[in-house]
Amino acid sequence: MHKAKKKFGQNFLHDATVIERIIHAISLKETDNVIEIGPGMAALSDSLIKACNKLFLVEIDNDLIPQLKQRFSAYAQTRWHIFHQDALGFSFSSAEALLTEKTKFRVVGNLPYNISTPLLFHFIEQIEYVEDMHFMLQKEVVERICAKPDNKDYGRLSIMLQYFCDCEHLFDVAPESFEPAPKVESSIIRLTPYSEPPYPCKDTEELSKLVATAFSQRRKTIRNNFRKLGIEKEMEQANIDGSLRAENISLAQYVELCNILSNKGISI
What we know:
268 residues; alpha/beta; two-stranded antiparallel ribbon; 9 strands; 34% helix; elongated
């Protein structure tokens, strides 16, 4: 039995009922190409490969690679491929290069909780390759992703993921469903990229920087956090009340402000 490594944030899912619920939620078609981030002991992988066209596994742990190869040796080599690397450096294009035609991927994973936020931003940067994403995350992170304005959980992660995706909190998973059991509750989230964002932004990199600046000091007003930018007039044009905090401003308002700044050639 492989011993979970703390440095990789490993907690292996073993609850058959939870696994079945996840697979049902993903609802794979036999034409789907799937990328699984951190397959671990292949708890989900066994079900994924049976239901999809090709399964790509991204695993950083040296000790798990031989076990995964042995696990899938019964399947044709054309059905699976292992990328032995850190998911933070993984490019979806490297999986597409192994296929005969362009595709969008179903992305699945029990993400390491210690790097889940940078991983999510890394995947959002490659959103053009994604059909949808189903992730196991710390429940607190899922609540932050799905949070709406006027909520303490609402922040940069909420805004940027909601800009690109429809975000759906599916169900919670108890600690005892894992080995070892984490000290926190977990949740499954579905992220479905929009074909057209509800609030189109002219420059999403600038939007990301604008939102990061807005939340740089959460307890201060938005006017104070934007003071060095000198954009009070533009804030008024976007109907943003400077006396409010960053958590009180909607995604639509942030996008409107960003577009106004872009039209005037103002960079953050």
